[in-house]
Amino acid sequence: MAGGERARGTARLPTIYSTTRMIRILGTILLALLGLAFGSFLNVCLTRWPKGESIVKPRSRCQSCGRTLAWWENVPLASWLALRGRCRTCRAVIGWRYPLVELAVGALWGWQAWQFLSAAFDPGLPAIVVAQSVLASAGRLVFYWLLVALAVLDAENLWLPNWLTLPGIALGFAVTLIRAALDSHALMSQSVEPMRFSVAHEALSAGVAIAVSAGMLLLVRWVYWLVRRQEGIGLGDVKLMALLAAWLGLAGTMLALSVGVLLGAVAALSLLAAPAMRREPGKWMQSKLPLGTFLCIGGVVSALWGDRLLAAYLQWVGLS
Predict the structure, then answer these.
(1) 247 is a domain residue
(2) CB 3.0 to 4.6 Å from 128: which of 186, 211, 243, 250, for a disulfide?
């Protein structure tokens, strides 16, 4: 009898595994599609925010001829492909930014769903750990959306608005504190002294990370002004560094900064190599590069692969 029950239990395992994997795949697809929709909404914001226009009214329209778009012309990614990147009325070009933003948000949200669902169905996980994972994943969705928004705004307008960076800092700080509170609650329920993981300790660590990260860029900005007597780095970039620190911590932010500086150096060298710059040697000094865009890309890299990259670096320098 016992052997028969064991056999039936073993036979159910492939079915349970198959069902769990199917839920994981469907959940990832669903969140990726939701990301495409939020990316489409972000495109509306990115077009209207710099002009001071409402993101609610009027309905989406062609930026060239002003025609109101039909519903099927607003389907994320698919509409741009179906229209071949042109307005069906005036044939004006619909820029690559539209599909790229939608694809970026959709891909990042889908990846986050895949990562979360890979562990969410583990029956051995305590409820408090699942709650932490839900909070972290939901926070990352907002974080990625903010980074894509800020990257495009800086690339197109050299603009990092306070009403995105400052709430982003506050939200990242709040998520850190809530996760610390859940840690403390879990430890107390196990009769473990939670001093190391206390909310106060995490608040101090996050505050130091924010202050150091923003302070580094402020120092560079000040030194540049002393040497050149002009602004080289905007305060928006300083606030963006604080936002990255609130979400990624000090080590993750330093990785994001390293990636951003590297990308900026590549962009600067490419600019210097351009024929127009060679014809006018002094012109490159008036060119402005969107540091915020490079920092946002670095933030995404750090969020996705930061732990592995930092571990590989520490191993390479012999510190682990």
Answers:
(1) yes
(2) 186
